[in-house]
Write a structure and sequence with these properties.
two-stranded antiparallel ribbon, 3 helices, 5-stranded antiparallel sheet, alpha+beta, elongated, 31% helix
């Protein structure tokens, strides 16, 4: 017989899997929709990496839903450019801390974005119970998956 703790944990993991898949689908769409420099003529590399990271930072267990597109125009960039979506859940005695963000780390000016690190979207909540944390994460994932303008503002060529 499955205990209620096992059922709860299975439900928690299924929710995280659903959020991970939604972020992965969104990022795959952006990856396929735009030329991130691999066809720029100067040679380049482009990668899409979806990950679920489990780690402990300063004694606090964390789960990170992490999606990043990195690209580099070998003729113009010294380091890769990054377009990243992440949701971090940190579990402490005082409750769950959740941070969700969109981050652009640009080696050079691209479209409307100047070179540098940009956080066009960031939401943070602390002291949440598990149910509230999952509700918060679901709402943030929905918001991040409606942020089509971040990539469009990079001035990248849309693929046909």
């Amino acid at each position: 017989m499955v205990t209620s703790v096992e059922q709860w944990f299975a439900g928690f993991l299924l929710s995280l899997d659903r959020f991970q898949k939604k972020l992965a689908e969104f990022m795959l769409g952006r990856y396929l929709e735009h030329d991130f420099g691999s066809n720029s003529g100067g040679g380049g590399e482009t990668t899409l990496v979806p990950q679920v990271l489990l780690d402990v930072v300063d004694g606090t267990p964390r789960i990170t839903l992490h999606h990043v597109i990195t690209w580099m125009d070998l003729a113009r960039d010294q380091e890769p450019n990054e377009y990243r979506l992440a949701v971090i859940l940190a579990f402490a005695e005082a409750g769950i801390t959740v941070e969700a963000y969109v981050r652009l780390d640009l080696e050079r000016d691209l479209g409307e974005w100047p070179a540098g690190v940009h956080l066009p979207y960031r939401r943070h909540a602390e002291g949440l119970g598990l149910d509230d944390a999952l509700i918060f994460v679901e709402a943030r994932v929905e918001e991040m998956c409606r942020r089509y303008d971040d990539v469009a503002r990079l001035g990248l060529v849309r693929r046909d």
